[in-house]
Design goal:
The protein is mainly α. It contains twelve helices and no strands. One of its GO terms (biological process) is response to stress.
Amino acid sequence: MSDDTEITRLLTIMRRLRDPEGGCPWDLEQDFASIVPYTIEEAYEVADAVERQAWDELPGELGDLLLQVVFHAQMADEAGMFTFEDVARAIADKMVARHPHVFGADAARNTEAQSEAWEAMKAAERAQRRETRVLDGVALGLPAATRALKLQKRAARVGFDWPEVDQVLAKILEEAGELVEARNTAAPEEIRDEFGDLLFAVVNLGRHLGVDPETALRGTNAKFTRRFAFIEDRLAAEGRTPADSTLEEMDRLWDAAKRQERADRR
């Protein structure tokens, strides 16, 4: 089958699932708000497949994500708001408009000039939507670290930024000190706020170092999972579990896992 035929088939399946006469009861109960968590989850599963380089799983994960787009579009179509074709047209028009060096008369740019033009176009689009404040339009539903990064980038464009990495490091130390001070004296809400300030400052450091916080933390999560599995495997060989061992034993095995990883990289 052609790609167009498969897209048509998928749209037909979605319409059938949402058909009040003979459709799926679960699908019929859903609305935009109830589907959003699934949309986010499927996007993360795409990221997970890429992180693990599970290329054989990636088509299926991308398909799951595409289904979410189709689901939203079908509900919108039923409400007379827009159709899947409108969704495809909107992104196609946007890509053409944002790439005049490819689809228009502009000469090919270098990456830096291209990024500047892209940001200028997005700023014009925000102005058309009457988003007049610098931080308007940064989606609330983004993961917190990603949203923090985007907020900081927006503010930096108008000069609200530390010029030196050392100043960011000093801010992290300041925020850590405030958290330590609040830990024993402040209310839980204030401790939470101070902890958030520290995380925000760490995201800022990542931005200055060119490190994406979500990517970095995903990598560390994977490393933690891998090393803890090493601990479990070593203990299992002795007929034990982590609950049967001491922190000192597990810490020694953690160090052994680190040494093994270094040896494997050589």
